[in-house]
Amino acid sequence: MGVTSMCCLASRVWVRHLKTQAACQLPRGSYFRPGGKASAKIVVPLAEENLLKIAGNSLRQTQLLEITKESHPRKTEPKSIGLKEKGKKATPPLLPPVTEDTQFQRLAESVTPLCERNFKKLPCVLEPTRPSPELIGYRNKDEFGIHFGVDGNPKTVGFFVGRPLDPEMVCVPPTFLINMREKHKQIAQSFQKFIRQSPHEACHRFDKGGVWRNLVVRSTATGEKMASVIIHPQQLPEDTIQEIMEELRQYFINGEGSECELDSLYLQACPHTRCTREQAPYRLVAGKECITETCLDLYFQISPDSFFQINTKGAEVLYSTVKEIAEVSPVTTLLDICCGTGTVSLAMAPHVRSTIGIDITTGAVEDAKKNAALNNINNTIFIAGRAEKVLPRLTDELAQCSDVVAVVNPARAGLHPQVIRTIRKCEAIQKLIYVTCKPDGFAMENFVKLGSKKIKSPKARNTIPFIPKYAVPVDLFPHTSHNELVMLFERAKV
């Protein structure tokens, strides 16, 4: 089986069954046949494969499945499909006829489409999911929207239930969500009281006016709390924005909201769906510029737009897993592509010769440098720029290194194809760790491009592909269907 096929096949298993390693089974008595009627039962043996618990486990024993056999013969001649007759609906295209050879496969596809039957093993070792140390109130960041509540109040702060275009969509307060910290709920409720007292309207749609848009709350393991209020500036003069900032300051520092004990309060006047700090600067309303989080005995300064894993204790498991399967040593040079605020680089720095972090966001690179200085780490370099532009400039230097390991942790959109081609062309990289929270999305396309022998780009056509070797899911999001997947790739042997 080729690398492309193996990657695609493994994805379907990982995405659907990482958290539940239950077997795919058809219950007895389930008599399904599209377009048929039950008349006489027969018992037919059908091989039923269970999920792989650990690579090397054998498949489950054959189970018996009862199905129904029609007493009358099936008509196999397809009806002709012509133009729609007046007053009659057009006949839909027919599926290929079910034969003796395909009947059981077709039944399985209809009744149990999620059950994999056509593979003998995964392309690499797949560990059981590593659990999060914290299950309750583990989220260190929450973003609240503002919309109509079930009571019709347009200034309800919480999460949307329903689709954005659905007129029945409502905003529900997070009162009973168990994965959210109580202090976050308190800040959201206090902010709701504030905006309901404000003369400014909520901004549900940009073209309908309104000011209040979102609230982002962050907190650390030591109890520090930051709130960022997002407004739409509309055509408000600067004096009005300053008045809003002063009202927020008075409410949360001296007024009723002081019970929230915020350490940092920001406001961002953003005219778009999302704005970078360059597009719309975060304005400090009150308190400190940053709050400080601890992870793996390191300190990280968190600013309003800093990226940090949503589950701090789970992140410690994640980064320890990356270090474990990367098998780094004091002679290793670590390439941290999409480094963000430098968490991977700084966590690995004590165990390697040096780290090189690359990120397209200038603000994130600035934060990474500050975090390195905060922890007195001197063997790290952080470069702002596109990976496909920066990596070629490092080729000569990397060629002199005895062991180069790359770690990529992109956003849900995955790596740009040019980045994949650049990584494949960089011969010094012999080992790659891919970290993703959505392996069934664009990351799967990256997996395929990393391992495919068929590359359209002439510049990367003769490069050696990467082969998946090891995969570890980490439950960074308890009580949800999501996992963080850590996957090890190695260069194929030529």
Major beta sheet, strand line-up: 3-18-19-17-16-13-14-15
Query: Count the strands?
Result: 19
Note poorly predicted spans.
1-86
Biggest beta sheet attributes: 8 strands, mixed
Over the alpha carbons, how many angstroms does the gyration radius reach? 28 Å
Bulk shape: globular
Span of the ends, CA to CA: 17 Å
Question: Helix content range of the residues, please?
Answer: 10-25%
> Helix and strand string, N-terminal first?
HEEHEEEEHEEHEEEEHEHEHEHEHEHEE
Biased composition (Basic and acidic residues): 68-85
Pfam families: tRNA_U5-meth_tr
Keywords: Methyltransferase, S-adenosyl-L-methionine, Transferase
GO molecular function, one term: RNA binding
What does this structure look like?
With 494 residues, the chain is an alpha/beta fold. It is built from 10 helices and 19 strands. The protein has helices at 3-17, 103-111, 182-197, 238-254, 312-326, 343-348, 362-374, 387-399, 417-425, 442-451; strands spanning 40-46, 63-69, 125-126, 141-147, 156-161, 170-172, 212-219, 225-231, 264-269, 283-287, 291-295, 298-302, 332-337, 354-359, 380-384, 403-408, 429-436, 466-474, 484-491. The protein has an 8-stranded mixed beta sheet with strand order 3-18-19-17-16-13-14-15, with helices on both faces. β8 (225-231), α4 and β9 form a beta-alpha-beta unit. α1 (3-17) packs antiparallel against α10 and α8 packs parallel to α9 (417-425).
